Records
---
Amino acid sequence: MTLGKQATTAMRRHGLILAFSIFLAIVAVTADSFLTIGNILDVIRQVSITGMIAIGVTFVVITGRLDLSVGSMLTLLTVIVVDQHNSVGPADAIMIVILAGLLLGVINGILVGFMGLNALIVTLAMLSILQGVTLFYSGGSNVNIPNAQSTWFAVFGRGTTFGLPNPAIFFVISAAIASFVLRRTIFGRMIYAIGGNEVASTFSGINAKQTVFWAYVLSGFMTALAAIIMGSRVMGAQNTIGQGYELTVLAGIILGGTSLLGGSGTIWRTVLGIAMLGFIQNGLLLLGFPYYVQWLVTWGVIIVAVWIDLGAKRGRILA
Amino acid sequence: MSIQASLTHNPKRGERAIHWLYRNHIWLFLTLSILVFSLASPYFLTVNNLSNVLTQGAFIGILAVGMTMVMIDGEIDLSVGAILALASALAIGLQDSLGVWPAVMCALLSGAVLGFVNGSVVALSGMHSFVVTLGGLIGIRGLVFVYTGENALMVTNFDYTEYAEIYLGPVSLTAMVFLALAAFFQWILSSTRHGRETYAVGDNIQAAHDAGINVKRHKIINFTICGTMAAIAGILLSMRLGTAEPNAGKIWELWTIIAVVLGGTRLTGGFGSMWKTVGGVLTLAILRNGLRLLNTPNYVELIVMGLVLILALLLDQALSPRTGR
């Protein structure tokens, strides 16, 4: 392989990272505060909630399915954890919210996994139902933790360890564990197998229904963890706090190069995609653009990134 | 289960009934919801209220007309809510400088162009339309905010809002546009070459390509139609409200998909009809209206809607003939 060819291949494979680096360089030169430890830690802390959810949803997406209900789920679970914190205390509230998250995952898992219903529509229905349940639970009013200074519950969202924000630490540890599970365990291989070819995986003795079920349970579990961080960070919850998270999560996963058709993708790619969204948002704000300009950039970045990725896979740009 | 019991009792008639129900369960839902709310509320079955239901449902309905075309193709368009907001902002924002009708034309054109862009990217890149239009959903909302600067635009010439008050008997202009578009595209689907090709592409894209259909051009046309429909809905909304809010139409794409799926159109493509989409739209509108008449809190509406959607899926699965499909 000649040097030129190698360069082209590398461009195709890592073009996104290259373009992203150029963007980072431009922002770093223009805005002094961008490339400081404090700002970088801030960005990682900001994306950790989206990131935690995205880790769970990545499992679902690799099986070739979708979870659009995580945004509503995040809202409901945050409202629950904040409300329960006030009535039964932080420890019990955490137990309750994790159980609730698992339960919601189980419901999605039964409907999509065991009953074989269309994932997009089921989770869309759950999006609506969970919004309703949230309003029912909260009675339409916002909940908040009055004694924000004196509760140890603050440690999840506001605390730091050795100068590192705790949400970021939770995010990285979750990503490491999830990556191990996905790459090194039988469960992880089954997830890839189902997304790659569901019929073939069934014939080789994989219980596809059960595996999909557990992927949704995992998604619910990760959303519960994200809700704990969110509740602790905000020390309160509005009835719309998680609205739109399902789309940001998907955007990050897609940006990382995971195909919605399933069978491909890794946790680290998802983390990269989510981090890119975070740095784009942060960079544009530091450059003085209004917050909505990031949406336009996200649009362009998603289209270009996925197009290049697909083009590299088939060896030409046009389908 | 009782349906299956009747199947063993009289196979032929039962089979026919199941087959009919399988294809038309939306009419069952519609009849049931009308019956329930007529009995539950004395205000439901009045000309005035039904006229309102039709008008309220028409906005989602017009979006659903375009969405049905795209979904029969086996694709999806998540950006319709954002296109609606942009069209409504342009229709009001450009009025002062261009005049009413040029502004409306610009709004219409913006929808067509964005639909064309969506379709072209889908056709040329081979990306899944879910990804492309998810990007559009985020980015076009950004365009709306850039254009409006986060403020709601107000109409200055109030003649514009008079158009929304045009009624033919109990049927408002919005509802008329909805029904006319539904009828027109039903005709396109069932009686033109483009319609036949839509089903062919959605059913088996490779076979359609092999049969000589220009699949890419075909998809671009349907996405352009979908974008134009969203713009029409946006223009009508701006006439009705007299303002254009940058957050207008948020998550309407989800309601639209719910309405179309309730009507029996498959996300996998190749299956569906405009009339049944109208059935889905009306069922959705009646559920929302009826529950409000009964003074139920907002959350009941959200929960019922989700449950109905899952029920429709279950019914679809339970009644689907095991052989063949």
Note: The interface with chain A takes residues 121, 123-128, 130-132, 134-143, 145-146, 150, 254, 257-258, 261, 267, 297-303, 305-307, 309-310, 313-314, 317 of chain B (CB under 8 Å).
---
Amino acid sequence: MGLEPAEKRTPQTRTRKPAVKLLASPAVRVGISISIATGLYGVSFGALAVTSGLNFWQTMALSLLLFSGGSQFAFIGVVAGGGSGIAAMSAATLLGMRNGIYGMQLNALLRPTGWRKYVGAQLTIDESTATSTGQADPAEQRRGFWAAGVGVYVLWNLFTAVGAIAGSSLGDPKQWGLDGAAVAAFLALLWPRLKGREPIAIAVVCAVATVIAVPFVPPGVPILVAAVVAALVGWFSHGRRDEGLEPDVEPYGGHHAGRHQDNGSVPPGVARREGTDPGAGA
Amino acid sequence: MSLWIWLLTACVLAYAWKLVGYFVPARFLEDPRTSRVAGTMTIGLLASLTVVNAVVSGQALAADARLGALAAAAIALVLRAPFLVVVIAGAGTAALLRLMGWS
């Protein structure tokens, strides 16, 4: 869906070698372009991580083992602000909860077995979920997940290393505006989730709660205060069940007009996207 | 050394979240609150992290070049710039403002 050019080309390539066939899969092509776009900004993570006080191997451990952009940025964001290790760990862990929801959706969708479950779990992130759930055909859903998951993993780690090496030779990070880069990175992660009035209201309330908490609690803890406020809002209010779970990528481009009227009626694991402009946003 | 411990704990817990999704019975997903909370918390945490990195300095609030970075990033996002361009816009603006004397 939404990738007409690739679909038109499929009949011609069907006669060629398997490798070419795989590249003709719309999901694989989207997965590759998402991998390149996401992998590249691993540079900013690597550079910011070393300038916020992590060493090269701590930076690599986050990309290799934790492997979830938002949580990784959260960890170094708390450390950079003078927060404790436990506060950094807590922020990263709370932000990782959504991957559990993605895991449930993907498990229902792809029905992985054996080792695929364990490897697939590590590759369960915004990008692989979005690429997979954007496809309608089960084989394409599977290909999309693995293409984006493996692709992002390899490139994200490669570019994290590049960023970490470059970052450690920069000297004073403030002179290069790297603290400004962190601000921009968090806003860019938040931005795609602010579709409609409710998520914006949640963001504002949590931002205010953070500012109020700052003078009273140790560094890093205001972020956890905001997490509690957000969890309470989610628990006691009735809105879209997938609010904020819009992965921060739109592999199939398109717009989401009218989506905010479907208050929780979207069945889990079912393709929600209706991309219209092929290739855009990838 | 203690940073290593919390860092590795974060890695283990991140994988645990991911794995939980593949092993809990599907009916958990049918409780709309589970995914609601995961979603609102994602928004809340990212909003909070944005604010902390923009205006917080230790245990106080500060208005410095990072505010310029926030504004530049917002403009870049309105113009639908890709992630890396947004980040570079933020860094460039903060660096430029410092060069002009605004710490």
Note: The first helix of chain A runs from residue 4 to 13.
